[in-house]
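Hey L., structure's done. Input below.
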Amino acid sequence: MGAGLFAYRLYTKPTTLSVGVGSIDGEIVKGALLIANRFVKSNAPVRLNIVKFGNVLDATKAFAAGKVDLAVVRADVGDLSDARAIAVIAEAVVMVVAAPGSSITGIEQLKGRSIGVVGGEINHRLVKALSREYGLEGHTTFKDLSPPDAQRAMKAGDVDVLVMVVPLTKRYLDYVRNLSGGGSSRSPTLVPIDSAGAIADAEGAFESFAIPKGTLRGSPPNPGDDLTTLKTGFYLVAHAKLDADVATGLTQALMNARESLVAAHSVLSGIAEPDTDPDANIPVHPGAAVYYNDAQQSFMDKYGDAIYLTPIVFGLLASVFAAAWKFLGLGRSRAPDPVWRVLYELPRRIRSATSEAELINIEQEFDELLKDEIAKSSLGDDRAADTATLTSAAQRLDNLIHRRRTVMAREKSHADH
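Output:
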């Protein structure tokens, strides 16, 4: 019974993973924090520790160096050789933006002109793909620009077009509309990428996409018809070595929370299942694939045999050790360990806890105590606490921790409002 209880405690204990997230405007970071908070409120089996970076490239570099367990990455940015997809978090569209009334109607007309690359290094792979397809290399000047500098560069005529990658949400569409500084009456011109299909075939990180007619609003509608371009995705990725069960739990928790997350932040409206084909640009993690293929096993399916056999094995070993202990004359009467004092103190600490970290530390402390007492019992140590008592204590502490988490979540919700 004690071994089975210990196994169940280990199985149900939340796993905390660090997540590298970066964006130049902070929107993806906000989305990641919402996901982390939702996991806490829903008592998910995985908890996320958000590690902020300046942009998505920095987050991807930290992930590739093994500094974080997970990362929110963009499919076309950085080294993703060890990345395995958990889910698509958001989609972003390539926009080539010219000044209002510009005569530029295609990428091929950009030879010899100046192109502003909004986001700089983050979009260099995209720029190279466009340059190869349209023969721009050696004929065109590219200028890296920050988002705040892009409007000034366009108004001053320092660039002929701006290239950027943005989600099709209100916040970003307002940004694009205001690039010309003239409001809706002078909405900028969107330039199509007619060879988007060929670029997507050569660059697996991109897909051909049609920006719907009237996306930028205005009268007449802007664009006047569906406009061909490229899109890419932001992915939540894990290292290939991440435990499959943990990845499955993470995937399930995210998909279960999808509806509430989409309602909470428009940038998360793209949460979706990644491409599960073996030749996908970012291969799906095996643990995530288990969830998407509906091939999950229950706790008893995985550990039923071990739970059944462990007490028998421990019982036999305990008998052997007890006999040897007695034969060698090593048994001694000793004062009991202070187990009861610890069990008495834990409920008080749980009730006064003010953070998730404190509750996790208490769980870890009790897990270690439980492990030690089971080991003592298996050796025939008369100092070991009674299994029934430990079982009752574990159930009580679990209930107290769950109630405290609920109270803390309610208090935080009230504070937010």
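Residues 86 and 319 are 47 Å apart (CA to CA). Confidence is low (pLDDT under 50) at residues 1-10, 332-336.

-- N.
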